[in-house]
Structure of Polysaccharide biosynthesis tyrosine autokinase:
Amino acid sequence: MSNQQYESNPNSSQRNSGNSISSEKSWLDYLFVIREHWMLALLVALSVSGFYAYKKLQTVPLYKSVAILLFELQQDKVINIQQVVDNSLGRSADFILRNHLTDLRSNSFRNRVVDSLTTEEVNLITKDYRDNDGNNAPSIHNIIASANKIALVGGNIFKFEFHHRNPQAAALLANRFSEEFNDFLVERSRKTNDSALRFLRSQSEELKLKVERSELAVQRYRQERNLVSLEESQNLIVDRMKNLSGSLNDAKVELLNLSATLEKIQEAKGDLDLLAKLPAINQMGTLPSKFESRNNLLAERNSLSLRYGRRHPRMIENASSLEGVETEIQAALEKNVSDFVQQHSQLKARVSNLEEALTQAEQESLELDQVAIEYNVLRRKLDTDKRLFTQVHQRLNEAILASQLSDVNLRVVDQAWPAGAPFTPDVKKIYSVTVFLFLFAFSCVPFGIHYLNLNLKTATDIEQQLRVPFLGEIRTFPRRLKKLHRLVLDQMDPQASELFRQIHSQILLKNKKLQPGHTFVVTSALPKEGKSFFSINLAASFGRHHYKTLLIDCDFRRPSIGERMEEDLVKLLEQREDPEKPLVLSEGLHILPFENSTVEATELIESPAFRQSIEKFQEQYDIIIIDTAPAGLFPDAGLIGNYAQNFIFLTQLNKHRKATLKAILGRLSQSKAEILGVVVNKVSRSKSRNLGTYKYVDYGKYKSYYPQKSEKTR
């Protein structure tokens, strides 16, 4: 063949990108999932919905009666009165309503209602719950507890809803609960007011005596401590402390500066040049002028030394003048240093005196603060006692007035009446829920099975989970087709041949450049997945496309190509002189079968003779397809991959876990050959929709549109 046939179009990679499986699912994909598991989904949906409808329709009919009680806020009173006993919790309307609701649901109030019932009323409530013999009726307490649904609705409305098998009993319980609750609130209000009045009177008397004792204690303390001018004394001491603190800080700063000056003078050690640089020295009397004279003499000396020697009269005169000036400077420095030392001692004494005075002032301030604290404690206690006495006395007056007013602000708005028809079972609701449960179960069961299944299911799983390209599918074939290994050779079935043409096209599109001697290794995870069947037909497809193709059976552990094609090869085997020479099955297809199995497969693969044979065949043929042992069980495929360019992996749907296939492909990726893609075998027509790289429709629907027999090109 010419090289042009091996080189693909430069834009093939772009076309190939458009053939990848889209991860976006349409409604047809979801419909396919339901169709795949519709029988099990139908069984589960019928079971769930039927059981629900049966249980609900078997319930005993119940009647409902409702009484309405309205809570009214009393905002038109002459004064704003708060209940004393509930003052700690605010007595807000919401709190009152929550308390009322708690009382209504309590066992004590239920017992109160039961005690108010007559014998005839008790029989009316219990008779419908007795068995057929009229015995074994549940207690009336249990009937009422399970029948009432008392709730607060609309913010200030109590709804007494009762369910009962007898409509008269339901109305009786609703009305009796509302009436008894009104009576209960009236009685409790009276008891509460009486106990509140007794408590407040006793507290008022105790607090009055406590206020009197506190006033006497404050007066006695003021007399003992002479606290008439306490605040003025505190202000004087505070001002004195401020003055002392300021003077002390100034003295410390002055002392620190003087100490630094003395330290620098001592560090100079009589060096006049260093002393002349100190700011404090330059500000001492005549010292600046004397230092200036010294500097002038030194400058003159340097100038004279350039013209005269040491013994020159002018040099001697200059040295004498310089000595005299330095003597005067030393004398002045000693006097000033003595003054600095004396001044330093005086400052230290002053700082000590100021610190002592400040400490004494602070002590006096602390003593006055202690007195003020004790006095303020007594004043606060007196103020607290007075405030408590005023509040309790005010509450007492309010409680007296509240006891004279009505605190019950509930009234019956609607009385309960016997219902004309039961409210449960609600047939319409039951049928609606049953239909919903059926549709929900029928829709969810297939998706639950689909997403809980961890096996390989779709082409999307291949490309997204296994991260390898999807090359195509091979469907299951009719039983009338016997010699499946000759599907492509004899063009036995148009649809089958078209599937192999699709896979052949995908292989060419995935390879940007197909060189002569290109070698494909075909393998699978486990035996009996159609690996040898696929290898034979794929080789035949390449042969029909004018590639000189060699099919090698390298499944040394269980060779099957020779067995499958025994009828085709028997004559060729008899005529073959060299056992290592391929058999010519057709013009484009040669086959090299392996007749005897062996367990020493890896030794044979790694032998130099095997490598040399493969290299020789790669020089002689355009395409080489090698059928190997299953890669999930043996390492043969990975070793042979070192002599090839690509792997083609064959698998089946819903047979292997994704993690298992991913591990096998990971081992194959360690070989020199690249994994070209995955082919799915034995795909049923119902599952074929999720596969197919080109999204082909069913070829069988349109086969009449195309010619079924090929004519030889002239």
About this structure: The first strand starts at residue 63 and ends at 71. The radius of gyration is 56 Å. Residues 481 and 492 are 8 Å apart (CA to CA).
